[in-house]
Specification:
The protein contains 23 helices and 10 strands. The N and C termini lie far apart (about 100 Å). With about 500 residues, it is an alpha+beta fold. The strands form 4 sheets. It has a 4-stranded mixed β-sheet with strand order 5-4-7-8, covered by helices on one side. A two-stranded antiparallel ribbon has the order 1-6. Among the domains are: about 140 residues, no CATH class; about 80 residues, Arc Repressor Mutant, subunit A (Orthogonal Bundle), CATH 1.10.10.
Length: about 500
C-alpha cells in the first residue's frame, strides 16, 4: 500500500485548565491558615488589592445569595466612592488645602525638642486639632521577653559549668547534639567515641555526665533506662523496682500475677510501684518541644435556633474580605504611562478581580456543602454521635449537583464549630455498617463509640470478649464481624479482654 500525504479536518473536545481555574481549585482545598497566608502574599505583590478591616462580622458571616451579592456590590461601590473622595482630597497638597485641613497656618512653631519624639495629632476639642509631642515608639514588648531555650542550649549551659576534661567535654557535646526530640540517645556509644576520638571509658563517663543534667532522665538509650535515672534521682531504685523495669512488657499486658512473682513483693507493694512509675516522665525533653502550637480556626459555625433547626454561617475570622482598589487603578490609569506599566496594571487588575471572585465562590461552595451535611446529619447535631448516619461524598455531591472531587476538596482541612465541639468536615463521612433488621445502616463512627461505651461499663466479673461485644451489637440491630470489632477496639486503644480482666481484678483486689 502506497503512503500519501493529505490534509484532514478533525474536531475533538478536551478539557483545558486555565491558570484561573487552577487558582480556584487551589483556593478551594486550602485550609484557613493557608488561605490567610496566600491572601497576604497576594496583597503584598498586587498594589490594587487591600484587606477590608472595617466590615462588620455580621456582613462577613451572613450567607450570600445572588440577591445579597448585588447589595454587597453596591456597598463595596459606595465604600470605594467614599474612598475616591478621600483620596482626591488627600492628593491636594497645596498650602491652602493643608492649612484648611490642619486648622492652622504652616508658620506655626512648636516648643520642645523634635529630635526625641514625633508629633501626634489628636482629634477633638472645639479649637480644632491638637498637637502634642509623643514618645518614640521604637521599643517593642517582645524585646523584653526572654526567648525560649532549646534542649541543646539548656544542656550546653550545664556542660559549660561542669569541670569535665576536654575529651570528655567533646564527647558530651556530641551526645547532646545527637539527642532526639524526646531526649533519648539513639546512636551507639562506641560510634560516638570513635567520632570524637575519646576512649570508651571517657565516652561512658560523658554519658553519665549528661544524664546527671536537668531534665532528669535525658540522654537515656531506652525507656527502662530513662525511668531508672529518674527513680535513682529519688533514691527509689531498689532491686524490686529494677526487676519491674526489666519486665515492662508484662506491665503493658497487665500481667500482675507474673510481675508479683518475679519482683517477689506483695500485691499492694506492686501496685505502689506501678503508681510511682506512672508518675514518671517517659519523655523528659517534652518541656523543650519547640514545635509551634497550631490553633484550629473553624471555617463554618453551626448554631441551634430557638425552633430546633440549625443555622449555618461562615466564620468571618477564617474568611477575610479582599477588595479591589478601583480608585487607585483609575488614578494611575489617568497618568501617562509606558506600555509596560499599562500592561502591568492591567494584569494586576485582572488578577485582583479574579481573586475576589474565587474567594467569593469558595465561600459559597463551603457554605453549600456544609448546609447539606447539616441537613443529612441533623440527628448528630441534635442528639450526638450515637445518631451519626453513614454518608459518602457522592451522596452530598448528588444532592447539591456538584462533582465528588469538589466536595472532597471542600471538606479537606476544613473545620466546623458546633455546640458539641469542633470537627473536621471529613468526620461526618463514615462507612456504613449493615443492620440485622430492615432498618437503616449504622455509621462506623457511632458503632465505634458504642464499643467504647460497652467496654467502659463492663464489670470485673463480667468482662466482654470480642465475641460477646459482637452478640451485644447484634442484639441492638448492628450486623458486624468479630474482626471488625477487634479493629475498632484497637483503634480506640482499648486492651484485649484478657488484659482488661487482669486490670479490673487487680483494682478490685486493691480496694
Amino acid at each position: 500500500m502506497a503512503l500519501s500525504v493529505k490534509l484532514q479536518a478533525r474536531q475533538t473536545q478536551n478539557l483545558a485548565l486555565t491558570p484561573q481555574l487552577v487558582q480556584s481549585i487551589k483556593l478551594l482545598q486550602m485550609s484557613s491558615a493557608e488561605l490567610l497566608q496566600h491572601i497576604g502574599e497576594e496583597v503584598e505583590k498586587n498594589p490594587l488589592l487591600e484587606l477590608d478591616d472595617g466590615y462588620s462580622q455580621e456582613e462577613a458571616a451572613a450567607p450570600r445569595s445572588p440577591q445579597s451579592n448585588s447589595s454587597g456590590d453596591s456597598t463595596t461601590e459606595r465604600r470605594q466612592s467614599d474612598r475616591s473622595s478621600d483620596v482626591s482630597s488627600e492628593l491636594d497638597t497645596s498650602s491652602s488645602a493643608l492649612e484648611d485641613k490642619l486648622g492652622t497656618t504652616l508658620e506655626n512653631e512648636f516648643d520642645g525638642d523634635r529630635s526625641g519624639g514625633e508629633y501626634r495629632q489628636e482629634r477633638g476639642g472645639i479649637g480644632g486639632p491638637d498637637f502634642s509631642l509623643a514618645a518614640p515608639s521604637d521599643h517593642d514588648i517582645g524585646d523584653y521577653v526572654a526567648g525560649r531555650k532549646s534542649l541543646r542550649e539548656h544542656l550546653g549551659e550545664q556542660l559549660a559549668l561542669s569541670r569535665a576534661e576536654p575529651a570528655m567535654r567533646m564527647a558530651a557535646a556530641q551526645i547532646i547534639d545527637l539527642l532526639d526530640e524526646d531526649g533519648f540517645l539513639r546512636k551507639p556509644l562506641a560510634e560516638i567515641a570513635r567520632e570524637t576520638g575519646a576512649t570508651p571509658e571517657e565516652a561512658q563517663e560523658a554519658l553519665r555526665l549528661v544524664q546527671s543534667f536537668d531534665p532528669c532522665g535525658v540522654a537515656a538509650r531506652d525507656l527502662p533506662e530513662c525511668l531508672a535515672i529518674q527513680l535513682k534521682e529519688k533514691n527509689h531504685l531498689d532491686p524490686a523496682m529494677e526487676c519491674l523495669l526489666e519486665n515492662l512488657q508484662l506491665l503493658a499486658k497487665r500481667d500482675f500475677d507474673e510481675l508479683q512473682h518475679l519482683c517477689e513483693v506483695s500485691f499492694d507493694d506492686l501496685m505502689d510501684m506501678v503508681d510511682e512509675i506512672k508518675g514518671l516522665d517517659p519523655r523528659p525533653a517534652r518541656a523543650f518541644d519547640t514545635a509551634p502550637v497550631l490553633n484550629i480556626i473553624p471555617d463554618v459555625l453551626v448554631t441551634e435556633k430557638p425552633d430546633g433547626s440549625f443555622a449555618v454561617e461562615l466564620n468571618p475570622d477564617a474568611m477575610p474580605k479582599v477588595l479591589v482598589n478601583q480608585t487607585y487603578s483609575a488614578i494611575v490609569s489617568r497618568d501617562d504611562q509606558g506600555k509596560e506599566q499599562k500592561a502591568f496594571m492591567t494584569d494586576c487588575l485582572q488578577s485582583a478581580n479574579w481573586l475576589v471572585r474565587s474567594l467569593e465562590q469558595r465561600a459559597q461552595t463551603i457554605l453549600k456543602v456544609m448546609t447539606e451535611i447539616v441537613r443529612q446529619q441533623d440527628g448528630f447535631f441534635a442528639y450526638g454521635v450515637s445518631h451519626l448516619k453513614p454518608m459518602s461524598l457522592k451522596q452530598v455531591a448528588d444532592a447539591i449537583s456538584m462533582h465528588e472531587s469538589t466536595v472532597s476538596r471542600v471538606t479537606t482541612s476544613k473545620y466546623v464549630e458546633t455546640r458539641r465541639g469542633t470537627y473536621e468536615l471529613k468526620y461526618f463521612f463514615t462507612a456504613a455498617i449493615g443492620s440485622t433488621q430492615e432498618g437503616e445502616s449504622h455509621s462506623a463512627e457511632s458503632v465505634r463509640q458504642r464499643i467504647r461505651s460497652l467496654v467502659e461499663n463492663e464489670t470485673a466479673d463480667k468482662v466482654l470478649s470480642d465475641d460477646a461485644i459482637v452478640d451485644a451489637l447484634k442484639a441492638e440491630g448492628i450486623d458486624i464481624a468479630r474482626r471488625t470489632v477487634a479493629k475498632y477496639r484497637e483503634s480506640l486503644h482499648l486492651p484485649s479482654s484478657v488484659q482488661r480482666r487482669r486490670e479490673k481484678k487487680a483494682l478490685a483486689k486493691r480496694r
